[in-house]
């Protein structure tokens, strides 16, 4: 049975957080872009807001993951 060190577990959590942040940011950016093109006459605020929501959700998930006891 292989040992897992605390540093390795922390590194995996950070990697998952970075991946989750990138995916949620990209999804918010894409969704904001679609809404900007279709509904808001090519304004920038839906793109910025979608990206911000994506980063906020990813931050919340990362905080919960890093503060868990597992």
From TrEMBL:
Entry's transmembrane regions: 22-40
Membrane topology classification: Single-pass membrane protein
**Which segment of the chain is annotated as a signal peptide?**
none
Instruction: Give Gene Ontology CC terms.
Output: MICOS complex
InterPro entries in alphabetical order: Mic10 (IPR007512)
- Pfam families in alphabetical order: DUF543
The subcellular location is:
Mitochondrion inner membrane
Which keywords does this chain's UniProt record carry? Membrane, Mitochondrion, Mitochondrion inner membrane, Transmembrane, Transmembrane helix
Q: What family is this protein classified in?
A: Belongs to the MICOS complex subunit Mic10 family.
Per the entry, what this protein does is:
Component of the MICOS complex, a large protein complex of the mitochondrial inner membrane that plays crucial roles in the maintenance of crista junctions, inner membrane architecture, and formation of contact sites to the outer membrane.
Q: How does it assemble?
A: Component of the mitochondrial contact site and cristae organizing system (MICOS) complex.
Under what name is this protein listed? MICOS complex subunit MIC10
The major lineage groups are: Eukaryota, Metazoa, Ecdysozoa, Arthropoda, Hexapoda
